[in-house]
Records
---
Amino acid sequence: MANPIARAWRKLFYHEGDRYFLLPRTDSALPNPPNEGPFGDAGPPVLAWLNRLTYGDRVPTPLFYTIIGIGLGVLTVIEVWFFTMRDSFGAFFVTVMLLLALFKFVVVVAFFMHLRFDKNLLSLVFASGFIIAIAIFVIMLVVQGQFSPDKLVAA
Amino acid sequence: MAQVAVKQEQHVHVADTNTGISNRKLLLWVFLASDCLFFGSFIATYLVYRNQSTTGPYPNEILDIPITSVSTFVLLMSSLAMVLAVNYAQRNSVGLARFWILAVAALGTVFLLFQIYEFTTFVNEGLTIRSNLFGTTFFILTGFHGLHVFIGVLWLLGMAFAHFKGALTSRSVEDLEMAGLYWHFVDIVWIIIFTVIYLIGFSDGEGLSTIEHAAAVVGG
Amino acid sequence: MTTIAFPKLISRPTSYTGLWSWIATVDHKRIGTLYGITAFLYFLIAGVEALIIRGQLREAESDLISPEIFNQLFTMHGTTMIFLVVMPMSAAFFNWMIPLMIGARDVAFPRLNAFSYWAFLFGSIFLNLSFFLGGAPNAGWFGYANLTGSVYSPGDGLTFWALGLLILGVASLAASFNFVVTILNMRAPGMSLMRMPVFVWMSLVTSILMALAMPVIAVALIQLSLDRVLDTNFFNPAAGGDPVLWQHLFWLFGHPEVYILILPAMGIVSEVLPVYSRKPLFGYAAVVFAGAVIGFMGWFVWSHHMFTVGLGPAANAAFTISTMLIAVPTGVKIFNWMGTIWGGKLRLDTAMLFSLGFIAMFIIGGLSGITHASPPTDAQQQDTYYIVAHFHYVLFGGSILGLFAGGYYWWPKMTGKRLGETLGKWHFWVMLVGFNVTFGPMHWLGLNGMPRRISTYAEGMGWETSNAIATFGAMLIAVSVLIFIINIIRTIASKQEAEDDPWDGRTLEWSIPSPPPAYNFARIPQVKSLDDFWYQKHPELLHDERGEEPESDEPVVEETHGGGSIHLPGMSYYPIVVALGMVIGIVGFMEIRVDIPGTDLVFPWLSAVGIAIGMYGVMGWSLEPVSEEGGGH
């Protein structure tokens, strides 16, 4: 089990000792219990406190969601602030903005859409759509020459 | 004995399906995965046509970042309100859930009003769906996003007035959860649109004319 | 749940016979039958279109039809065969067989299922109405921009095409969501994913592909309709628009679509071969994973349709590699099928013959496909009859033969009567010979330089003989289809009754009566292994074939679906109402006409009517209990 590849392989194909992708029939057979903390069990005290917020009655507490929401708001303010000083970022501006957007995206999907607390299958379904979309459209933009030198000069 | 105790403790409703996920919720997630490709196609179209417009107005002349930042913030906070509504419904407090649903619908309406204001301003400044490539791709992309928001507002209002009156059942809680998932999805699409089209695309200007472009390609 | 009063125009039908019971049906078997009948009618229409095309090309400088009509015919032939024949015929088998094979009483969303069918029916009728309303679409089935723009195609034909395909796309999306959920969620106890029949697996892969590919073509079609109706600039080169973008979006959808067309047939063949070889499918897991890998890799090969566009050597090389790689899982499947036949006790019934024909023809089509995976040879073959030969070998020799195999195989289960074997064998042999006589010569016509989509050709090009042979072959195919129709009529008229399990089948659908009762399974089956029904009949084979020991009979778990009596979802009119509203709403978009360049729009009153009908339907739908007696189980 120590080898992560072997673990991923077992998780995918030999789940619960049955052959291949047996999807569990009951909640108790799920690999991740519904109230597992989003940050794992270890971590500094702040994370432990956040973990406890997600252990409210049977769903995370309103306080937890409010913290996440305010965090997202702050990130948006930071984005706009970065935008105002975009000249000092130079070529890194686009990268930084995309990473910030991706981070916000993941946070909303993981916590607001509670995929982190939900069945893994739902994450798989959504990720397959999202990843295929990103992959094919990035390839399309490359093939269309969006990243070729003459385009960048024109911009 | 221990097993019986565990079973009683398990108050999460287990749907009667192979995956433990109710049919409707799985359907909604498949739909959202599919919608990723829908918006992905529109955003990719926008990106292919960046800096390709041959006539103005160009993005750097017309995009209003302060206004849009405010409307982005409104939509983000509507997402927070939405998650609180679902949370209170799951905690069985109907009144608070209903309050937050109406808050989401209100914030969504405010976002739509911002969009109407933005569109009207742009049209007055000469940007229509016909004026250039930027106008075409911008209006259709943000317009379809606005349509999604509008449908979400209708959905939530219908829910607030039809379902959230008496005692909550596990089914109506799931109804709200699904509306919430849809709403958050519309929000994350806007997160991408705001970053890619407004913040990154703000400096986009006039494109090379077709002949210049061809010359650049041949020369390069 | 609190209910609010909702105006019901018509009360819910309760009788299970008569016209209304078909219009309001939510039974997956009836919807499957409707899909099948509709798709077969379109098969005949598209076949007549093909015959006219072949008639025109029979001799040089023929003037049987005008070039304009010729363009309309080949466009509608391709569009009809793909969107109105192969896809709905696959949907017919999905509808009929998925619930029976996984041991379910219905699909996950019966009313959504009905909505898919009605949207498909209305969309297809709308598309074909264009023949009578100012000319059918005439820009080829992939409708390349900017030929499709209003400058070069001023009539309404291509607007019909774009909006019609948009409606069909919505129908396919709804159907695909439904099947994904059904397969993942509704399996009988014990049927893990790796115990599902291969046909169900291929349906799952196909449905996922549809769910993810249809939005892309929907966007492309929305852009095209906006360009045509509202004069936007998406594909307008004068404003800097790029026609290549249409090609990218179309083939981003179009290549997954190719697998949407072929994977169901592959699934059918994977069911038929083991039954008639009396052997388990060779390498079940490999067949399943090959299908899944094809479904994934199918996303990354689309630009091989665009090798001659000039994307540059780097892009062409990358897509060459991915295209050649995707042949590997396809080859894996073919070797597995041959391994299944190898050493089996073969029964050459009609379904088996069609499956064997599928393998042979698909190999030919696959090999000619490999030849244009390479850009230099593709540059020679692009837009010639060689391409036409290739895709008919994979789509006719593949999909259509596979679907006929499924038809002969499952006919007794669906109708309770076997299709005649003698006429069936005549059907197969005439069709196989006719098919090869038609499309075989097109290989050398193409390599000899005959372009596709030309309405006629000059004398002395050396194309007359091959074209005449191809036309003769097309008539043979028509004869074989006539034989099939006669076979159906004779079978329906006959008094015979098929057994529940006429072929000694392996999968769950053969464990119930033919035709199945409305509730399918009186008791939800408990599945203990792959091909569970076969090993119930032959427990002694379980050790030899699967390496498993028969389990001792466990006490039957109390079934969870429905409780005491079997609850079936009630019939509903709302699906057809919503479908009608949606179609009118989309069609009404054509009413928005631009008077002068500017903002003068006519109010889209027809769309408004459609949206109103649709909203009424959606509200009625969401407030209607699933069945009248049991409060929303």
---
Amino acid sequence: MSLKEKDYMPREELQSLQLKRLKETVERAYHLVPFYRKKFDEAGIKPSDVKSLEDLKRLPFTTKQDLRDNYPFGLFAVPLEQVVRIHSSSGTTGKPTVVGYTRHDLSVWTEVMVRTYLMADVNEKDIVHNAYGYGLFTGGLGFHYGAEAIGASVVPASGGFTKRQLMLMKDFGATVLCCTPSFALHLAEVAKEEGYNLKEDFRLRAGFFGAEPASKALKETVAEEWGIQYVEAYGLSEIIGPGVAASCKHGNLHVFEDHFIPEVIDPETGEVLPDGEEGELVLTTLTKQALPMIRYRTKDITVIHREPCPCGRTILYIESIKGRADDMLIVNGVNVFPSQVEHVIAKVEGVTPNYVIVVDKKGVLDKLEVWVEVDESILKDGVGTLERLQRKLEEELLNNLYINAKVKLVEPKTLERSMGKAKRIVDRRQLEGGR
Amino acid sequence: MRGKFAVKQISVFLENRRGRLADVARALSEAEVNIRALFLADSSEFGILRLVVNNPEKARAVLSAEGFAASETDVFAVEVEDRPGGFYKVVKTLSENGIDVEYTYAFAGASNRAILFFKVPDSEFDRALELLSNEGHKLVEAAEFYT
């Protein structure tokens, strides 16, 4: 079977493969990782209880905290001799989470990355400019080895040095760009400042964007500015890195189900939700040796769809990640995702897509401010136009998100420019011990 | 007429923060750009500074490089006598012909004359120039502000 055909397997065949692999994974986890054995025993479940895919929902969850508690290698199911690569999160909010790969795991990773690239038919003629950070972060090397396996020419640009990156993209004739969506936008902005014509000076035809949630509007802006097919690449290092899911030409984010089983649960109760309902994505790995993950809670909010996709793939798809449960703000009882704010801003003319959400306490109530950079184009008119723009944004936020936000217009480039993941939220409530 | 009389005005967005106005002035001063006229419109949180300078391209480049949002807008200048009624005559012509003034500012120079700057809707720019010229008002060529 060619790699691409794996996306088109008949469902029955796929499900029997999933069940076989799930049983193997559960057996291995139970017998090789004390953490899993303890959890299963506490829940009164034996590996032999897994008889169908339906039984998955009886298994206990695994969380990021479990990875931290077993720092660094406690959840590994193989001896270190068999581990050939170790990646780690930045650990900005505590101990980092550490993930390991056997040689087999790396080949699985490469396979799913190749299948990601095939969403835009990337081939050996392509020049892939990879601006994901190389290093402990899985983005850089994940996209690198996938492109190399296809036989494309990879430019391992890594992050930073925006102007030099643009020069290389132009001079080398890059046809494919890999980076975060906010960096793709940043590249476009700087290119325009530097006097480049995005569509004439560059040969880009597709981009693979991930590692942070992006609104529909941001995706459209990136796709239009660069004139490219926008492929959303979804993944997380705990599962494998990028390569868990990728969007086809119809924009549906297909999960590589022969390697990962997705479920959507109610984050409060842990109950599995029916297809079509929004909740937290939970993933189980089926082929990982070094770090099998059983029902890992991703904290990402999405919806599962099993209806047929026009692209013909039989693997199911999820909706574009709406936000991390971690990023979700609760403002006076209303759930707010930064991507929703971004979507509103992107539709209004006169401001750039750069924004920061500032939440503070005012008495007992939460006070929300959205800071947006003004665009030069709007300065021709009077101050009244800017005031109307402010009010319009406030109205749109109220109508779309049901939140009372105060919009503050700020000078360009005052908001922290993202070279990697964008920082969109400043929550000052915790600082004052508000909650 | 537009080519001759359209004065390139620079608009700069300023947050109401201490020192921002000084930052603009310093940047222009260091670049040896001379300010010929200025006008600051403000709300409680931000302002727009309008500048007529001797070298608009340079001013804009310098301000953009310093991270300001700066754009160029066409305005026109009319010279009037520096005495009661001077301003009225010009505004009357515009008003009677249904041309809205979006904003205006002025400076009284030497030798008993004053210069008025007008921003009108872009679609009315040429008509405004024709009207004023036909009614005998003295339009000032843009080149007079530049060096």
---
Amino acid sequence: MNRRGADSERADPADEAGTNVMSNPGRRRVMRAAGGAGLLATLAAIGWINPADVHAQSAAQAAVRSGEWNAAAFDATSLDDGLRILGAGGSTESGAIRIHAPDVSETGPAVPVAVSSGIPGTDAIALLVGRNPTALSALVEIPAGTEPYVNLNLRISESGPVLALVRAGGRYYHARREVTLTVGGCGE
Amino acid sequence: MTEPTRIRAVLQGDLVDVRMRLTHDMEMGRRKDADGKLVPAWFVQRLTVTHNGRTVFAAQCGPMISKNPQFNFRFTGGKPGERIVVSWVDNRGEQRSDEAEIALG
């Protein structure tokens, strides 16, 4: 099983400085550059597409390639382990975090879950699902100028808690919500 | 081959509301095929959205996000006619970028 991704990642304590989304032992991964940017440049050179679009796309591709992926956190098999690996073991429960999700869902493979944070300085939101084979679903960075809100669809394999973790001012806060399933999400 | 991301970006007041639907199997690595062999995990790991070169959304994703993942977020500073770029890379190193113009709500 290759859940760790196309390459291996190793802990590098020297690289834990503040640029990471949630604290983690990951290091920046440099991925093999695909041929896409070169093709775009060629199309621009022969006038097929706008060079400004090429620039925007190649910059975006470089950014997405160079970003990190926290393999250790995504491997965690429980809420507690996930929180601990994210450095959020001491997270405080907060009523300023709202989780919008169905109380009862008929289907587990695609449950819409939205999180909004009323905590000033929110710069990251993570979603964890307590009864899934791996707890962490997504780690979302909230840059300045972006609302402390995200809405996405998750697999939920069994009835249980959905936990939203928020980082603000270097501290962690969370809220929890129970989602009951009538059909599981992992048999899809 | 990868397939285009469906993107809708609409200016509402001073916020641009962005909805995206990626086309990706998001294999969990836990399912067995017809021959009883485990289907390897294959999922989007990173998703970023940029506007005028600035990152306005960035997510690390695991395999417990649904097939054909959908995301919604909102950012300030976008104007109608400007473009956003949605890029993703998966655990096999495949990647793609798609663009959309911000529409007036």
